[in-house]
Amino acid sequence: MEQWTCILTSIPKPGIGVIQLNRPQVLNALSLQTMIEIVEAMEQFERSADIRCIVIHGNEKAFAAGADIKEMSGAGSMEMLERDQFARWERIRAIKKPIIGAISGFALGGGCELAMNCDMLIASETAQFGQPEINIGVMPGAGGTQRLTRAIGKVRAMEIALTGRMISAREAWRAGLINKVVPVESYVQEAIALASEIAGKAPLAVKLIKESVLKSFSTTLEGGLELERKNFYLLFASEDQKEGMNAFIEKRKPMWKNK
Ligand code: CAA
């Protein structure tokens, strides 16, 4: 594994690649280098045949308190355009393996946007989500206005982005932003347990389910249903479909081959 400066990576259990943001002194603010490393670590896990699921987390106090304000405060428009640091997030969209975010403490601005780039979210009781860019004279720039609106609806997204107010883990759960709220002692383990459960499923089906669900954000119902149907039929070309159905009929556990 490469030497990172802003993150840590590990494989705590077979099949699970973990990324930990590691700039605690600035509440894991997302510097340019942090963003580069997150995307590169995800792509390494994506390429690894041994990894089935990715988990990303920060520490108890902060998942990430947003883009690094000190790094961008003096920049001009053209410099920001040239850096185009948030465009890098787009590469996360190309990751086919499920990504589970384990969130504790602050998930603000770019931190909330990074969380929303994950496929599922487990949060500790102390997690706080928000888009506070309005308080520093700007606006969400890495998907906040789009993903938050799709996740929790227009009026709630408007309130969060226009007031900069944070919402608690419970509010986020009630609004449908996150999957589960758990005690702070166990939020990472819960995310790893969820990742392990998914890692035990047929890998090709996992991949095509993720692709099909994500497609619903960028296509019509008709286009999405068509993709879903074709992906369903496509899985009948896999050995794992035969294995899964035969195992059911023979009343035994399937042995997946990722083929
Ligand atoms: N960038 C750079 N440094 C940050 C940071 C950020 N986003 N957030 C916190 N820090 C630093 C603080 O400057 C401080 O450093 P020093 O000790 O050197 O002063 C350290 O982290 C600890 O922070 P605080 O002392 O402020 O901690 P707190 O517990 O009192 O407050 C907080 C926590 C409410 C999260 C507060 O730090 C805060 O409001 N942070 C900024 C949140 C924000 O505005 N995020 C949006 C950034 S813009 C963005 O993300 C754009 C986008 O869409 C991609």
Structural description of this entry:
- This protein is globular.
- α10 (203-215) packs antiparallel against α11 (221-234).
- Helix content is 44%, strand content 16%.
- It folds into two domains: 7-199, 2-enoyl-CoA Hydratase, Chain A, domain 1; 203-250, Orthogonal Bundle (Lyase 2-enoyl-coa Hydratase, Chain  A, domain 2), CATH 1.10.12.
- α1 links the parallel β2 and β3 (53-57).
- The longest helix has 16 residues, at 32-47.
- It is built from twelve helices and ten strands.
- With 259 residues, it is α/β, with parallel strands linked by helices.
- A six-stranded mixed beta sheet has the order 1-2-3-5-7-10, sandwiched between helices. The protein has a four-stranded mixed beta sheet with strand order 4-6-8-9.
- The structure holds acetoacetyl-coenzyme A (CAA).
